[in-house]
Amino acid sequence: MNQHTLSRRLAQVAAHVPVGARLADIGSDHAYLPVALMHQGVITAAVAGEVALTPFHAAERTVRENDLQAQITVRLANGLAAIEPGDGITAVSLCGMGGETIRDILDSGKARLNGQERLILQPNGGEQPLRQWLMENHYRILFEEVLHENRFDYEIIVAERSGPVVYSAEQLYFGPLQMQACSPAFIAKWQRTLRRKQTTLVQFQQAHAVPEQKVQDVTRQVQWITQLLG
Ligand code: SAM
């Protein structure tokens, strides 16, 4: 993967960035996403935010080597603190982090959002708490998908602030749109997850002193997944 050839995962994320957007890519690492989108003529400006020094330097290098310093600003910052009011950001991407981390970044930085930005999120696990945050903060999920690459299941969730929205517990767990679409990748992910959860339940039965709440949670999830796949 590089700034010219994105992974399938980042290429799918890129496909949801609106033409003409001013993008904040938070946790940008090498800044491949904003640089590729700039080369494709999709975005007009970007901020690449990084909290860690090594990826921050990597992002600076990619931007410099592509001669895009005038269009892409690289900032060493924690989460949405990379966004400044004058940036006029219209889309925010947070990719390749756990769903809880993405949720925490959104929650602690929400004062930096004006509510008009499209959020393009690619959590690695922890999708349920992330969807919960979206619902509680009045973001409607506009698009979501599962994709399988390099033996991992990745989810992409695109959301915009729309006013109050209500999702059921199952919708928060599986994704409201994915439950409807039931794509082959989605079904395959949940078949794999079901096998894992069933193994976990057997281990719980063999182990002593597993908290009852934990057993109940996994049992409920196995029921939901079985119903979904049925
Ligand atoms: N977004 C890229 C992608 O999807 O390929 C890079 C993903 S990399 C696994 C996660 C990056 O997020 C790391 O470079 C890490 O330093 C950065 N990161 C983690 N927490 C962050 C935070 N609170 N603010 C900014 N960057 C963060």
How is this fold's topology laid out?
Blueprint: H1 8-14, E1 21-26, H2 32-39, E2 43-50, H3 53-65, E3 72-76, E4 91-97, H4 99-108, E5 118-123, H5 127-136, E6 139-149, E7 152-161, H6 169-174, H7 176-181, H8 184-206, H9 212-229
Parallel strand pairs: 1-2, 1-4, 2-3, 4-5
Antiparallel strand pairs: 5-7, 6-7
Helix pairs in contact: 4-5, 8-9
The structure holds S-adenosylmethionine (SAM).
S-adenosylmethionine (SAM) binds at residues 10, 26-29, 49-52, 55, 78-79, 95-97, 101, 105.
Describe the protein's architecture and organization.
By secondary structure, the chain is α/β, with parallel strands linked by helices. It is built from 9 helices and 7 strands. The protein has helices at 8-14, 32-39, 53-65, 99-108, 127-136, 169-174, 176-181, 184-206, 212-229, and strands at 21-26, 43-50, 72-76, 91-97, 118-123, 139-149, 152-161. A 7-stranded mixed beta sheet has the order 3-2-1-4-5-7-6, sandwiched between helices. A hairpin with a 2-residue loop joins strand 6 (139-149) and strand 7 (152-161). Bound molecules: S-adenosylmethionine.
